[in-house]
Amino acid sequence: MAEQGGAFTDRLARVPEREWDKRAGPDALLEGAREPFVLRGLVADWPLVEAGKRSARDARRYLLDHARDRPFKVSIGAPGHDGRLFYDAEMEMNFRVGTGKLADIFGGIDKAEGQGEARTVYLASIDIPSHFDGLDDANPIELGDRDPLKSIWMGTRTRIAAHNDFPDNLACCAVGRRRFTLFPPHQFRNLYLGPIDHTPAGRAVSMVDFDAPDLAAHPRFIDAMAEAQTVELEPGDAIFIPSMWWHHVEGLADFNILVNYWWRRTPAWLGQPQVALNHAILAIRDLPPEDKAIWREQFDHYVFENDEQVTDHIPEKARSILARLTPESAGRLRAFLLRTLSR
């Protein structure tokens, strides 16, 4: 049985909305937050938002005034697939990826505007400092002592399958409208994830079509729906998505711009957990069950429990990587791993 997306989202809980101090910004609300929330009007005074309220073309012209003369990566989908950037029937991508100057990409959007069955055009996760001059300064946000990655997402109507990210994420709707549907981290089993090494954008995605969930093929999705939250953002609104929360994102207007900020709660030199998962698949997953059980115990001992039994019997100066990691010891460990993986 397939269920239409409108009925699906209408029944979901709404992402909570929080009040914020206009003088201090969202810093205090973000500190230690582990649940999603919406901040209405957080960036409503941005010049980019004001340009978009005049027209989509004004927003594009505003961005072109700041764009650097360099290639921009763009994904292009065929007409008629409703903006869903996903797999095709052969599990290959249903879009192609190329590069071009932003003026040329926007020129194509200008020509296709209002034509109905236009191609999907999506510029995803474009690094702002390296692709624009002064855009960040002209459209500021107060995030305390965080040093986030700053990205902009631009394009026509899109549907981006549910996925998660390791960093915390503050996503600001600048132009158009965005619908977010969120699921807690533990719901990954009920989202029917696709491959982790062959993905539309680097992260495993849900294979469920949120516009028409097939509950015969994906029956556990009902359990995910029971814990889902949804919200539509208007220009100037923002949503906080905590680390590892699954989010399905839709660009609902003919042209949409999102600006987001990613930051980690831990130092970047600690590495990416996804890399460790991939390595564990390579080295452990296909071992005999009795060997896997032994390694499970060792992972619990050294990684997940990591209590005093690990190190108390070792002189403090001799604990090496079993001690709390530092940038120096993490660097030595990374170098060791690179040497072993290259053999």
Automatic annotation (TrEMBL):
PROSITE patterns: JMJC (PS51184)
Domain JmjC, residue spans: 117-278
Entries under InterPro entries matching the protein: Cupin_8, JmjC_dom, RmlC-like_jellyroll
Gene3D superfamilies named in the record: Jelly Rolls
PANTHER family found in the cross-reference section: HYPOXIA-INDUCIBLE FACTOR 1 ALPHA INHIBITOR-RELATED (PTHR12461), HYPOXIA-INDUCIBLE FACTOR 1-ALPHA INHIBITOR (PTHR12461:SF105)
Stated name of the protein: JmjC domain-containing protein
Organism placement in taxonomy: Bacteria, Pseudomonadati, Pseudomonadota, Alphaproteobacteria, Sphingomonadales
